[in-house]
Here is the input.
Amino acid sequence: MKMKKLCFYGALTVWLIGLTFIGRAQAAPVDTKMFSASGIQVDVTAANAAAAREQAMQEGQKKALMVVMERITPSYVIEQLPELVPDDILNFVQDISVLNEKTSSVRYMATLEVRFNPDAVRELLRQNGLPYVRTSGKPLLILPIYRRSASASPVLWEENNPWLRAWVNRNVESYMVPLFVPMGELSDLQTVSVDRILRGDLPAAQDLAKRYEAEGILIVELVRNGQTFTVKGRAMDEMTASEIPNFTFSVPLTKDTATTFARAVKKVVEHLESVWKSEQMVQFNEAASLVALVPVADLSQWQKIKERLDRIPIISSYDLQAARAGVMQLTIFFAENIDRLQKEMNKRMLTLTVLPSGVFKLGTTDQVMYRPFGSTADQNGENAMMSAAEERGASY
Here is the structure.
């Protein structure tokens, strides 16, 4: 057994030392959808068609950049957002898609989708001293569970689940929190049942999430109570639960249930975007850094630590400085202050403590975040959590 441990630590040390040549690790990959603007309408009349098109493209790119910057910054800085001249905006554009293009001898009309370089946009905001959301959330699998009444049995895959259909047919975009909805195919039914979901069968739900390339799982249950519908949201996996608090709200019945369900879907999407935006807002003015020792028992533990570090919004990057059997030494670069860094780590089941030498120690803590719907703790805490989330989102 001792020889086996020595072999492992030797392999771990070689692997970790190899990482030192990779350079600085950038935390949290960016979803480019967050840095794109679609549905940009342009309609310009000029001396000729070519001039009209050129002017329309310039105006469209400027409008699209403002859409992206307003999306990822708080509302109180909108008046401070930089306005760039067309030639400068070109340096930020990654590519453009043109739809519904119409021209005449002097007029140009089209609908544009403009995708921007995320690093360039973030650097522009940083240089102007403005806070912003640096990264998008991880892709979530939405599980829309429906009850026709409080006493009715829950349904998910059944054909009579209008809540699932509303999610599949939704027309509201989610830019900062990518969302996926199962189609209810036979393979979905065979993977997990509604009863297993509500019991908290995470492995079965994760198998379904993998099929849709989602990294987190969010149960969104809708219950009809006469002329009112109650929506409850709860994450199944611990990492999603650490980033998206439980929520609940009511939606009144409108002229028809299809419209009501569509509004409920929109409200959920807007809530998720608002929570992500308020929780992930960071002001990258001057970067701070600290040295942390990280005890690592095996490669899987390091992978878990790395995944959690990558989810922390205020960490811009980290360097692996040294490695020996069972211990790594990281330099972590972050924004704002250590207090927030520790809070953000705690949310993601990491601990950051100071050793007598002044060096920090980075560790992990595991806890079960999931509670089935209907539990006493769930009922007592839900409204307070929703109110807190709405208060955080109200200023953005």
Notes: The radius of gyration is 24 Å.
